[in-house]
Amino acid sequence: MFAFNGAIMLAEYEKLAPRMVRMMRTLLGSGQPISEAEYKNLPNISFDYAIMEKTARGVVLPSDFEWSDIGSWKSLYDFLPKDADNNVLNGDVVAHHTTNSFILSHDRLIAANDLDQTVIVETPDSVFVSGLENSRNVKEIVDTLKRQERKEYQKHNTETHPWGRSTFLEDKSDLKIVKRLISPGSVYRETFETEMLWNVLPVKGQGVLLLNGRRVYLAPGRSESIVNPVRVSIENSSPEPLLVIETRVYGAIS
């Protein structure tokens, strides 16, 4: 557990990690949201390595209290209440002859049979299965995904934006289907350079579509399509969220 004065910590960063401080001041000084590319350019180093291993102004004090950083699925399993079979089950889970296990479902049904000391975690991106005691090894798996440049390492199926949230329902080289939830008073904008057939289908709410300069009123069930869009914006000026399904078909478009 760390406790420090903000001004002193900033002075330590200026002394021990000056490049990071300069870059952060430049980014924050622009007054604009930090982009993904700008974030990736920041030094990839933790507070422990950058400051605490080098500072001469830190001290260690013993404390008498229980603490767990919940740094693995095993530690989370130990922390949470168990059922009669000593399982932690969350979400849509059916466990048959299964004991001492942690099973977490996000979207889909998980049916577990004849398992013991097992972790199963289902997310929209992937499914993680491991022995309970060695579940901390997920960090090594993430390193493998990073070396393989897998998209699951780089981004989630669901992404949060200043204008709302997007979820990739299909993400292939020739077809992308995205569910976009646009917050009230917000505008989703995008500029395209790739040839495609672009379609948007409003599901819930109302809004205004600007498509290559053309203004279109959006309402549930009224889809709009265009070949090779250049500039697209969807404005939600209503007090309710606007839900649309956007489809992009790539390849030879006639």
Structure description:
There is one protein chain. The protein is α+β, with helices and mostly antiparallel strands and 254 residues long. It has helices spanning 6-16, 18-29, 36-41, 47-52, 73-79, 138-147, 151-154; strands at 88-90, 93-96, 102-104, 110-113, 118-122, 127-131, 158-161, 164-171, 175-182, 187-191, 196-204, 207-211, 214-218, 224-227, 231-235, 242-250. The strands form four sheets. It has a six-stranded antiparallel beta sheet, with no helix packed on it. A hairpin with a 2-residue loop joins β12 (207-211) and β13. The model has no long low-confidence stretch (mean pLDDT 91).
Structural domains: how many: 3
Element string (H = helix, E = strand): HHHHHEEEEEEHHEEEEEEEEEE
Overall pLDDT score: 91
CATH class of the largest domain: Mainly Beta
Q: Which strands sit side by side, in order, in the main sheet? A: 7-8-9-16-11-14
In angstroms, what is the radius of gyration? Answer: 24 Å
Shape: globular
Q: Quick one: how many beta strands?
A: 16
Low-confidence stretches: none
As a percent range, the share of strand residues is: 25-35%
Structural class given helices, strands, pairing?
A: alpha+beta
Major beta-sheet overview: 6 strands, antiparallel
Amount of helix: 10-25%
Helical element count? 7
Terminal residue distance: 61 Å
CATH topology of the largest domain: Jelly Rolls
Overview in brief:
The chain is of the alpha+beta class and 254 residues long. The protein has helices spanning 6-16, 18-29, 36-41, 47-52, 73-79, 138-147, 151-154, and strands at 88-90, 93-96, 102-104, 110-113, 118-122, 127-131, 158-161, 164-171, 175-182, 187-191, 196-204, 207-211, 214-218, 224-227, 231-235, 242-250. Strand 5 and strand 6 (127-131) form a beta hairpin.
